[in-house]
Design a protein that fits this description.
single chain; 253 residues; alpha+beta; five-stranded antiparallel sheet; four-stranded mixed sheet; 7 helices; 37% helix; elongated
């Protein structure tokens, strides 16, 4: 059976001498494992469309529980990412997280749109890495079913609490006590305002907020820790990305 769809390559693995096994988030079928025959060869016409972080149109053939790429045409290769190791590693982190939360046979157009917009914001729009990373992490948490309760303190109802509970996904004042207390991270008013914006804004405006360098660092720490806590795992691509930043210090731009 032949299928036609568009999708973003989230992971690539060498297979045999010239093939690849690709994990793609597709528009019509959710996450799929695809075999790209001969795409590792330098003369393969499908090679550009079958690389990590390529958004492509595919013609697929399904036979005996294997899906093979018959034709592939790249639609967006995000060249700005491929020219910068930091941006490429951050995009790879986005891909690894997206693969972790996406499901087979379950189309998720909002998730696909989120990662495509995030990659475009880094590659073409030149948005600050910290802004895109934090917005992506928190919005993806919401799409994955972990929307935090940001209305006010879970205990007293105060509108501007100063702590965020990573396990519960709730706000709480430093002086309030809950029956079961997890790790609480400080959250400044401006950071809380940004979190509320990210969780509820139109997707087209997701990266259109501004914070001071210190506030952006705090926001990134919260969104990164919250996502890891909810998914109960770490990400090797994030470790690599952060390792690139260590010699120069964390980037706020």
């Amino acid at each position: 059976m032949y299928l036609k769809t568009k999708g973003l390559i989230l992971r690539e693995t060498a297979y045999n001498d010239a093939d690849k096994l690709l994990t793609a988030l597709t528009e019509d079928y959710g996450k799929m494992t695809l075999r790209g025959r001969g795409v590792r060869r330098s003369k393969s016409l499908m090679k550009p469309a079958c690389q990590l972080l390529a958004y492509s149109e595919f013609t697929l053939f399904e036979y005996r529980n294997q899906t093979t790429i018959q034709e592939a045409q790249s639609l967006q290769l995000f060249p700005g990412l491929r020219a910068d190791l930091e941006l490429l590693s951050l995009g790879s982190y986005f891909a690894q997280v997206t693969e972790a939360v996406s499901q087979e046979d379950c189309p998720n157009p909002e998730l696909l749109s989120l990662i495509l917009n995030a990659l475009y914001a880094l590659s073409t729009l030149g948005k600050p890495q910290g802004v895109v990373k934090a917005a992506f992490e928190l919005r993806l948490s919401c799409l994955a079913g972990y929307t935090p309760d940001l209305a006010g303190c879970a205990v007293c109802g105060a509108s501007w609490p100063d702590r965020f509970d990573l396990s519960m996904g709730t706000l709480v004042c430093s002086g309030c006590r809950m029956p079961s207390e997890g790790i609480r991270m400080p959250v400044a008013p401006g950071v809380l305002d940004a979190m509320r914006y990210i969780a509820g804004c139109d997707g087209k405006r997701l990266f259109s907020f501004v914070l001071s360098a210190e506030a952006l660092r705090q926001l990134n720490s919260i969104t990164e820790s919250y996502l890891a806590t909810q998914l109960e795992r770490s990400f090797s691509t994030l470790d690599f990305y952060k390792g690139l930043l260590l010699p120069m210090g964390a980037k706020d731009t």
